[in-house]
Amino acid sequence: MTNVIKFVEKRNLWFVISFTIIAIGFAMMVGRVFNQQPAMNFGIDFSGGTSIMLKFDELQKRYVEAEQARHVKSDVNSDFIQDIREVLAAFKLENSSIQLTSDGEVLLRTANFDNDKRSLILGKLKEKLGNYELLEVDVIGPTIGSELRTQSLWIMLVVMAAMMIYISWRFEFAFGIGALAALLHDTLMIFAVASIFHFEINIEFVAALLTVLGYSTNDTIVVFDRVRENLSLAKGPVEIGTLINSSIIQTFPRTINTVLTVLLVLVALLIFGGTTIKPFAGMLLVGIAIGTYSSIFIASTVLYSVLNRPKDA
What we know:
Mean pLDDT: 83
Strand order of the largest sheet: 3-4-2-5
Strand content: 5-15%
Distance between the termini: 25 Å
Helix content: over 70%
Number of domains: 2
Order of helices and strands: HEHEHHEEHEHHEHHHHH
CATH superfamily of the largest domain: Multidrug efflux transporter AcrB transmembrane domain
Radius of gyration: 24 Å
CATH topology of the largest domain: Multidrug efflux transporter AcrB transmembrane fold
CATH architecture of the largest domain: Up-down Bundle
Number of helices: 12
CATH class of the largest domain: Mainly Alpha
Shape: elongated
Structural class: alpha+beta
Low-confidence stretches: none
Largest sheet: 4 strands, antiparallel
Number of strands: 6
């Protein structure tokens, strides 16, 4: 067990890397608040707003023309989105979210406005882009958005508490501390990355976050299970750092195979999925990378720090 990679011995390096990314992300949040901007890019699910689903005859016509001319369909989408954004810019809504579905439908997500302004915007869209079919209009008020933020926060806290209790029961309390540290790390890292790259925070983001927490916990349990197994098989005194390092190495094939399988699915969704599913798949891709990192470099090293604490005292 002596010739293994020293994961736990380099724990300060892993902590510094994570702390730096988290600090940058949260510093950007504070900076936005000082500039009287929202700390994060909250979608209409959390901040309130209007969602409008439209189907334009002009877009379908452009698709047909592009197919006949053998042009790239994505170019048509980009041009059409730009045309819509020009109309919205006249109403100071140029930062609105505009998405095209795989069925050629247009989803607009904007700030709240009254019925008169909505009719005016739709009229201008008709002038520029021709006839359309109004499929759906949803309005989410600020109060509902605030309630959704609170509920999402409670869901995340309950999930983390339940996972820690489960791991503490299945293993022992020291393992639960390591798992909780990894969960907190993943949550803070994902919010920091979302802040740095200005990802939209919506219901899909919360779903992706909870999925990543479940994935990360599963990966952590695999490593912890091997640590416990090696502890039970050890004869006589054992150096806990070397044992944890060896356990991580032994679980590498399983970790790599799992990550590659998940990555294949997510990359396929990013390439071939519709516009509405790509942000969710992208957030999962980032989260899976963070979750895999934390189960190896954070959970295990925190476990080492807890188990080795009496020896360092």
